[in-house]
TrEMBL record:
Gene Ontology MF term list: DNA-binding transcription factor activity; transcription cis-regulatory region binding
Name the record gives this protein: TetR/AcrR family transcriptional regulator
Keywords, ordered alphabetically: DNA-binding, Transcription, Transcription regulation
Ranges of residues in domain HTH tetR-type: 8-68
Entry keyword annotation includes Transcription: yes
Lineage: Bacteria, Bacillati, Actinomycetota, Actinomycetes, Streptosporangiales
Highest taxon in the source lineage: Bacteria
DNA-binding region boundaries: 31-50
Amino acid sequence: MDVAPLDPVRERAILDATLELLSEMGYDRMSVDQIARRARASKATIYRRWAGKPELVVDVICNHFDMDTPRPCDTGSLRGDLAELVGALRETAERKHTLIMGLSSTLVSNQELARALRAHMLTRDLGGVEALLERAAGRGEPARSADTARLAAVAEALVWHRLIFVGPPLDDAFVAEAADEVLLPLVRAWATEPTEPAAPAEPSQP
Protein backbone atom coordinates (compact mmCIF):
# COMPACT_ATOMS: atom_id res chain seq x y z
CA MET A 1 0.00 0.00 0.00
CA ASP A 2 1.35 3.43 -0.98
CA VAL A 3 1.41 5.95 1.85
CA ALA A 4 1.22 9.71 1.60
CA PRO A 5 3.73 11.74 3.60
CA LEU A 6 2.29 14.03 6.25
CA ASP A 7 3.33 17.42 7.45
CA PRO A 8 5.94 16.68 10.19
CA VAL A 9 3.99 18.65 12.81
CA ARG A 10 0.78 16.75 12.04
CA GLU A 11 2.59 13.40 12.05
CA ARG A 12 4.22 14.20 15.39
CA ALA A 13 0.83 15.06 16.88
CA ILE A 14 -0.62 11.72 15.74
CA LEU A 15 2.34 9.74 17.07
CA ASP A 16 2.24 11.59 20.40
CA ALA A 17 -1.49 10.97 20.70
CA THR A 18 -0.94 7.27 20.03
CA LEU A 19 1.70 7.05 22.75
CA GLU A 20 -0.52 8.85 25.24
CA LEU A 21 -3.50 6.60 24.57
CA LEU A 22 -1.38 3.45 24.70
CA SER A 23 -0.20 4.52 28.15
CA GLU A 24 -3.71 5.37 29.32
CA MET A 25 -5.76 2.44 28.04
CA GLY A 26 -3.59 -0.10 26.25
CA TYR A 27 -3.61 -1.28 22.67
CA ASP A 28 -6.86 -3.26 22.60
CA ARG A 29 -9.08 -0.50 23.98
CA MET A 30 -7.49 2.24 21.88
CA SER A 31 -9.18 3.10 18.58
CA VAL A 32 -8.23 5.14 15.54
CA ASP A 33 -11.21 7.39 16.32
CA GLN A 34 -9.71 8.21 19.72
CA ILE A 35 -6.28 8.84 18.21
CA ALA A 36 -7.79 11.20 15.65
CA ARG A 37 -9.68 13.14 18.32
CA ARG A 38 -6.65 13.41 20.59
CA ALA A 39 -4.41 14.55 17.72
CA ARG A 40 -7.11 16.86 16.30
CA ALA A 41 -6.76 15.12 12.96
CA SER A 42 -9.21 13.33 10.72
CA LYS A 43 -9.33 9.56 10.37
CA ALA A 44 -8.77 10.06 6.66
CA THR A 45 -5.46 11.77 7.42
CA ILE A 46 -4.36 8.82 9.55
CA TYR A 47 -5.38 6.26 6.94
CA ARG A 48 -3.52 8.14 4.22
CA ARG A 49 -0.31 7.60 6.18
CA TRP A 50 -0.91 4.23 7.92
CA ALA A 51 -2.97 1.23 6.82
CA GLY A 52 -4.53 0.91 10.27
CA LYS A 53 -3.94 0.81 14.00
CA PRO A 54 -1.37 -2.03 13.93
CA GLU A 55 0.79 -0.21 11.39
CA LEU A 56 0.57 3.04 13.34
CA VAL A 57 1.61 1.39 16.60
CA VAL A 58 4.43 -0.50 14.86
CA ASP A 59 5.68 2.85 13.56
CA VAL A 60 5.57 4.29 17.08
CA ILE A 61 7.45 1.33 18.54
CA CYS A 62 10.09 1.03 15.82
CA ASN A 63 10.82 4.63 14.95
CA HIS A 64 9.56 6.86 17.74
CA PHE A 65 10.03 4.83 20.91
CA ASP A 66 13.53 5.35 22.29
CA MET A 67 14.84 1.91 23.27
CA ASP A 68 18.55 2.72 23.08
CA THR A 69 20.65 2.20 26.18
CA PRO A 70 21.59 5.34 28.11
CA ARG A 71 25.11 6.76 28.07
CA PRO A 72 26.31 6.89 31.68
CA CYS A 73 28.82 9.58 32.56
CA ASP A 74 32.45 8.76 33.29
CA THR A 75 32.77 8.34 37.05
CA GLY A 76 36.40 7.24 36.92
CA SER A 77 35.76 3.58 37.79
CA LEU A 78 34.03 0.56 36.29
CA ARG A 79 31.92 0.12 39.41
CA GLY A 80 30.81 3.75 39.35
CA ASP A 81 29.95 3.62 35.65
CA LEU A 82 27.91 0.43 36.14
CA ALA A 83 25.97 2.11 38.95
CA GLU A 84 25.35 5.10 36.67
CA LEU A 85 24.07 2.72 33.97
CA VAL A 86 21.61 1.08 36.37
CA GLY A 87 20.49 4.48 37.63
CA ALA A 88 19.83 5.71 34.09
CA LEU A 89 17.93 2.52 33.21
CA ARG A 90 15.88 2.96 36.39
CA GLU A 91 14.82 6.45 35.32
CA THR A 92 13.90 5.20 31.84
CA ALA A 93 11.88 2.28 33.24
CA GLU A 94 9.99 4.46 35.69
CA ARG A 95 9.13 6.91 32.91
CA LYS A 96 7.94 4.24 30.45
CA HIS A 97 6.51 1.68 32.86
CA THR A 98 2.87 2.49 32.11
CA LEU A 99 3.41 2.33 28.35
CA ILE A 100 5.26 -0.99 28.50
CA MET A 101 2.58 -2.53 30.71
CA GLY A 102 -0.09 -1.27 28.32
CA LEU A 103 1.61 -3.10 25.46
CA SER A 104 2.63 -6.26 27.31
CA SER A 105 -0.49 -8.36 26.75
CA THR A 106 -0.74 -7.23 23.13
CA LEU A 107 2.85 -8.25 22.42
CA VAL A 108 1.89 -11.78 23.46
CA SER A 109 -1.21 -11.98 21.26
CA ASN A 110 -0.22 -9.77 18.32
CA GLN A 111 2.78 -11.27 16.56
CA GLU A 112 3.08 -8.36 14.13
CA LEU A 113 3.74 -5.95 16.97
CA ALA A 114 6.02 -8.43 18.72
CA ARG A 115 8.14 -8.99 15.61
CA ALA A 116 8.47 -5.26 15.03
CA LEU A 117 9.69 -4.64 18.56
CA ARG A 118 12.16 -7.55 18.44
CA ALA A 119 13.56 -6.31 15.14
CA HIS A 120 14.08 -2.85 16.60
CA MET A 121 15.79 -4.24 19.71
CA LEU A 122 18.36 -5.98 17.49
CA THR A 123 19.36 -2.68 15.87
CA ARG A 124 19.30 -0.37 18.89
CA ASP A 125 22.28 1.68 19.96
CA LEU A 126 24.45 0.04 22.63
CA GLY A 127 27.11 2.73 22.37
CA GLY A 128 26.71 3.78 25.99
CA VAL A 129 27.61 0.32 27.28
CA GLU A 130 30.42 -0.04 24.75
CA ALA A 131 31.91 3.29 25.86
CA LEU A 132 31.65 2.26 29.51
CA LEU A 133 33.61 -0.93 28.87
CA GLU A 134 36.18 0.82 26.68
CA ARG A 135 36.85 3.37 29.42
CA ALA A 136 37.31 0.60 31.97
CA ALA A 137 39.71 -1.27 29.71
CA GLY A 138 41.66 1.94 29.13
CA ARG A 139 42.07 2.32 32.91
CA GLY A 140 43.40 -1.24 33.12
CA GLU A 141 40.26 -2.65 34.72
CA PRO A 142 39.13 -6.17 33.68
CA ALA A 143 36.55 -5.40 31.03
CA ARG A 144 38.00 -6.31 27.64
CA SER A 145 36.18 -9.63 27.26
CA ALA A 146 32.76 -8.41 28.42
CA ASP A 147 29.81 -9.00 26.10
CA THR A 148 28.17 -5.61 25.47
CA ALA A 149 24.74 -6.89 24.47
CA ARG A 150 24.55 -9.42 27.30
CA LEU A 151 25.65 -6.85 29.88
CA ALA A 152 22.97 -4.41 28.69
CA ALA A 153 20.35 -7.18 28.76
CA VAL A 154 21.24 -8.24 32.31
CA ALA A 155 21.18 -4.64 33.57
CA GLU A 156 17.78 -4.03 31.98
CA ALA A 157 16.42 -7.33 33.29
CA LEU A 158 17.41 -6.40 36.85
CA VAL A 159 15.58 -3.08 36.61
CA TRP A 160 12.42 -4.40 34.97
CA HIS A 161 12.22 -7.46 37.26
CA ARG A 162 12.43 -5.18 40.29
CA LEU A 163 9.86 -2.75 38.91
CA ILE A 164 7.29 -5.33 37.77
CA PHE A 165 7.67 -8.35 40.06
CA VAL A 166 9.25 -7.07 43.28
CA GLY A 167 8.04 -3.50 43.30
CA PRO A 168 9.44 -0.19 44.54
CA PRO A 169 11.56 1.29 45.77
CA LEU A 170 14.09 1.43 42.97
CA ASP A 171 16.29 3.45 45.25
CA ASP A 172 20.03 4.04 45.49
CA ALA A 173 20.42 0.88 47.57
CA PHE A 174 18.96 -1.14 44.69
CA VAL A 175 21.32 0.57 42.22
CA ALA A 176 24.34 -0.19 44.42
CA GLU A 177 23.26 -3.81 44.92
CA ALA A 178 22.80 -4.35 41.18
CA ALA A 179 26.22 -2.90 40.41
CA ASP A 180 28.14 -4.54 43.28
CA GLU A 181 26.54 -7.97 43.46
CA VAL A 182 25.60 -8.69 39.84
CA LEU A 183 27.10 -6.52 37.12
CA LEU A 184 30.62 -5.96 38.44
CA PRO A 185 31.19 -9.65 39.31
CA LEU A 186 29.77 -10.59 35.90
CA VAL A 187 32.16 -8.32 33.99
CA ARG A 188 35.09 -9.59 36.06
CA ALA A 189 34.07 -13.20 35.45
CA TRP A 190 34.01 -12.63 31.70
CA ALA A 191 37.48 -11.09 31.91
CA THR A 192 38.90 -14.17 33.65
CA GLU A 193 37.29 -16.78 31.40
CA PRO A 194 40.01 -18.99 29.91
CA THR A 195 40.56 -18.53 26.23
CA GLU A 196 40.74 -21.43 23.83
CA PRO A 197 44.31 -22.73 23.64
CA ALA A 198 46.02 -22.19 20.34
CA ALA A 199 46.23 -25.21 18.09
CA PRO A 200 49.71 -26.77 18.01
CA ALA A 201 51.79 -25.80 15.02
CA GLU A 202 52.16 -28.32 12.26
CA PRO A 203 55.63 -29.90 12.25
CA SER A 204 57.79 -28.51 9.50
CA GLN A 205 58.60 -30.77 6.61
CA PRO A 206 62.25 -31.76 6.28
